Amino acid sequence: MKIILAVIVVVCLSAASYLYGVTSSTAIIDAPQAEWAADNPAALSWQHYLVSLEAAAARIMSESESQREQLDGIRYLAQLSSAAQEMKVAKGNPARPAFTDWMSDYRKFLGDSPDATYLTAEISSDYRYEITGNKRDAVYLGVMLYGKSLNGWNRAAANASVATMRFDTKGNFRLLLSERKPDNYTGDWLQLDDDIHLVMVRQYFHDRQHSEVAELSIRNLDEAAPIEETSESLASRLDSATHFLNATMAGNIALMKMLQKAPNSFEAPKEYNQEFGGVFYPTLDNTYYGTWFSINDDEVLVVEGKAPDVAYWSISIQNQWMQSLDYDAYPETTLNNKDISLDDQGYYRVVLSKQPVEGVNWLGTAGFNRGLLSIRYQLAGETEAPSLTILQRKDL
Prior knowledge:
single chain, 4-stranded mixed β-sheet, 5-stranded antiparallel β-sheet, alpha+beta, 26% helix, Jelly Rolls, 396 residues
């Protein structure tokens, strides 16, 4: 009898433990009162960051036309948040700069190119920096400095790239960033204006998945005091992360809405301001053409233009959150000049459609009927804009 009772007790305890585990793991946690963060600047900044995340998620849901766009949007927000925290909080001290790989295989935002990598570091004109490395397999390597305009948008300030930089026979380079150029200095140098806050190193490849990326490092050449973290210093970096998150989201949606008013056209929207483009961290070395594509299942969008005589140019699509598509799952969503055939006069013709088109340069949409079409001509100088034509698939 005792054995039976003992078994019953064990079974009951196990069942109770299981039910407690299930209910506790799925329980919804009540939001704390807003005052929990009031006495600590870092806690208050964290609270503001979380509010921005929730507001961004609500905006994503309202701006999406399908569940796929909603899911893409939530993933996009998670990726953007990850980059903001790494760049602005974990590596946000200009006295001790460290590169953040923006895309890092899974993160995508701000109209990334599938052929490129983007490394950024927070910097300040209070210090001198040295960037060293080896360009490895990169077709293009460029270093871009960004400042802040009076309206708060990014300012493309200065640039050095393979077109001007010096590399030794093994591909090694050294670049100095400072407010003033040292006397008798003959190496590669970029000036740090007072408003400079970020450096970005871009690399482009014809076959990114099978290429060796550049070896890069950045260091502060000046003495920096030991870090003594305070609530105020952490709050400042959290505020920077919040600003980056909000500015990126707002810029993404604003551009999307502008382009949607005139789809399938490279004409710039009337309300587009060139300074607004700073939100997307453009480089002076690229000529950009972009549009919002919108096609029916039985339509194709034909892109035609004169191919620039340069080492790299590309055409690709992005979802509405300005993310390139997964390289492995949808390789047809991006083409560069190594993939695109030209006619005898050096012109290209690319056909954008949901379903494959044989015998042409085909750019797939990964099942989307709408999204962003992006063309990059690199180090091309003045170019003529390509043309866009909507055709019925049967008439192609």
